[in-house]
Amino acid sequence: MMINRRQKTASKQESTMSVYRFRYDQQRVSAFGRCLGGFLIIWFVVITGYSAEADLSSPVKPHISEVDTSSPRATLRSFLAAMNDYRTGIKNNDDRLLLRINDAVFCLSLSGIEEERRNFIGRNAARYIKEVIDRIWDGNFAAVPGKGNELRWRLKGTVFTIVQITEGERRGEYLFSRETVLNAENTYRRYSDLPYQAWSGKGAYIKEESQRKAKSDSGELYVKTDNPRQTMRTFMLAMEDYRKGKEDRIADAINCLDLSKTPPLGRNETGRLAAILLKEVIDRIIKIDYSKIPERQPNGDPIVRWRLKNSQNRIVIVLMTEGPRKGEYLFSAATVAGIKEFYNQVKHKPYLPGTGGGANFREPWFQSNVPSWLKTEYILFPTWQWLGLLVVIFAGYLSRHLSTILLKIVDKAARHSKTEWDDRLIAAARAPSGWIVAAIVWYIGISMLRIEGPPHTFMILAVRAAFCVALIWLLYRLSEIFTIFLERFTERTDNDFDNSLVPLVRRALRTFIVVFGVLISMQNLGFNVMSVLAGLGLGGLALALAAQDTCANFFGSLMILIDRPFKIGDVIRIGGDLGVVEQIGFRSTRIRTFEDSLLNVPNSKLANEQIDNLGKRRYRRTMTKLGLTYDTPPEKLEAFAEGLKNILKANPKVRKDYFITAFTEFADFSLNILLMYFVEVDSYEEEMAERHRIFIQALRLAEEIGVSFAFPTQSIFLENMPNPGYTPPPHEVKLEELRRKVAAFAPGGPQAQYSSGLFIPTSQDPDMLRAKEEAAKQQ
Question: How far apart are CA 532 and CA 524, in angstroms?
C-alpha cells in the first residue's frame, strides 16, 4: 500500500534503498492483452450494429458452425438447412429458429447494395430463392460440385448461380451471386404456380398480401421497386402515411427517387423536399389507378422507361442500369431536379377527388406575400432571398454578440459567489457559445428561405461545420476545467497514484472529444461513419503491425500505471541518467535531469529497464570520511568521534537506530573517521539542508576540541651531509624495554583498555540500543 508523506515519519520498517527491477510479466501482459482484445471485439460488434436486425453486409451468425461456404454443394446445403429451420420457426413461433434466416443471408452476395437496404433485400431474396429451389430442384446434392476448381454453378432451369468470390473479405467463399439476389423475386413469379417437390421443405411461407401490408409496429415496411407499379405504390403509400403523421415513412418515399445526381451532403434534404412536392403534384394532376401501371412489357421484357399520364413527361420512372441500385425502378433524376418548377406551375390547382390531398405542404407566409418585383432572379436566387440571406447573416452575428453580453452579465454576478468554478465555466463558454448560437440562427434562417440546389447544400454544410467546430471547442475547454477539478481533488487525497493519472486523463479526454467530435460531425455532415469505423476495424491488423512500437509504448504506460514503479516527482536513475519524473504519458515518460535537460524515455524501454527509484527511499544515506592529522592524540580522536555521535543524536531528522561514527583507517596522510547516517526527508533539497547542518556542527566540534583536518601533504627531511670517512653510530635496541612496553597492551596490562572512556561505540550506545528495540516492536 502506498504510504503518504504524513505517514512516513511513523513508518520506519521499509528498507533504506528500494531498487526496482521493472519488467513485463509475461502471464500478466498476456491476460491483459486477452481482456483488451475481448473489449475491442465487443466494441466493434456494438459499433457496427451486429445484432439480429443488423446490417447484413457481414451478417450475424448465431449458428455459424452450421454455415459452410467452401463449395457450391456446401453453400446450397447450408442455405437450405437455415431456411428450413427458419420455416419451422415461423410455424412454431420459435424466436431462436427465426434467427436462422441470418445464416441463409450469409450465403448471399450483397456486394454493391446500399448498406441501409441490405437487411431488407437479403431477407426477401432468401425467401424467394428458397421458394424457387423447393419447386424446381430435384434435391440431388451429388450433382452439385463439391470442393474443386469450379468457379460457378447454375441451378438448372433458372438464372440462380453460386459463384466463387474473388475479392474482398469473403474471397474464396462460394455465395449466391448478386444477380441471383436481385432477380430472386422475378424468378419466383415465374415459378410460383409450380407445386413443391416431394423432398423439399415446402418453401418459406411467403404470403403476398401480408408482405404488401406495412408493419409499422415491427419496423418492417413494404418497399418494392422491382417494376413501375411497385415503385409508384411504395411511394404513394409511404407519402400517405407521412401525411397522417408517420414521419419516418418519408424515408421509404425518398428511397423511390434517383438521387444519384444530388450531392451527397444535401441528399436527404433534397430528397425530402422532392418527395413532398412530387406527392403534391401527383394529387393535383391525376388519380392513380395501379392496375393501369404496367409491371413489364406485353412480350415479357422489362420496361425501361414509364411516364405518368398528364405529367408533360416530367414525372418518369426509369430502370436503373448502373450503380448500386441497378435493376430497380426509380423516379428519374430529371424528375427530382424539375419537380419544384413543375409544382410552381400546378400549385394553384385543387386536389383531385379521391386523392390523398397532397403532403400537408405549406409555403412560408413571407414567401407567399413577397412583392413581384422581389421575385426577380438575380445570380442564382430571387432578390428576396438575397435580402433574406443578408438579414440571416446579420441576425447570426447579432445573436452571437448578444449571447456574449449576456455571459458577461452572468460573469459579473458570479464573481460574488464563494466558488471559482462558475467563473471558470463562464470564461470557457464565452467564446464558443456565441458561435453555437449564431450557427443555430443561420441554420433556421437558411431553412426558412427555401434556398435550393448546390448553394443550399454549401450553406447548410458550412453552418453545420461551424456548429460542430464550436461545439467541439466548447467541450474541449470544459474538459480543461474538469481536469483542474481532478487536480484539486487529488491534492486532497493521500494516494499519489491519482496524481500520475490526472495528466493521462487530461490527454485521453481531449483525444476522446476531438476524435468522437469529428466522427459525429462527419455523421452530421452526411458521411457514413459506420463504414469508416468498419474500415478501421478491418484495417486494425495492418495498423497494429505498422505501429508495433506505439503499441509497445502504450502497454508500457499501462504497466507503469498498474505496477507503479515510480510516480511524478520521484528521483529515478535509468541506466546512467538521473532525474525527476515530470510526466507519464501514453507513449513516453518525461524526466527532468539535474542539468535541467528534458529526457523523453519510451515506456516500452522503461518496461524492460532496471529502474533505481531514489524517490522511494524513506531514509537517505550519507557516508563520508573525516580525516584528522597524524599528530592528533588518541584521546582527542575518541572525543571527536563521540562528539560526532552526539551531533547525530541531536538532529531530529537522523535515523536514531542506525548510524556509525568510528576510527576506521590509517590513510596516507590522515587518520580517517567514518561518518555514516540516514536522514528521513522527502526531497533532495531537504537532504542537502540536513547534510549542511551536520557538517557545520562537525566543524564547530573540531574547533572546540582542537583537532585539525588533514589534507594531502608530503614531508621531506634533510640530514647534514656526513664528513668523508664518517660512519654513523649503530642503533641501540633495548629489547627488555620493548618487551615491557608491548606486554602493557596484553590482556590485564595497564594499556589493555580499548578506549579512554570518552568514546562509546555505536553498537554499545544505550540510546541506539533503545531505538533498535522500539523499531523491532513496531515491526
Answer: 14
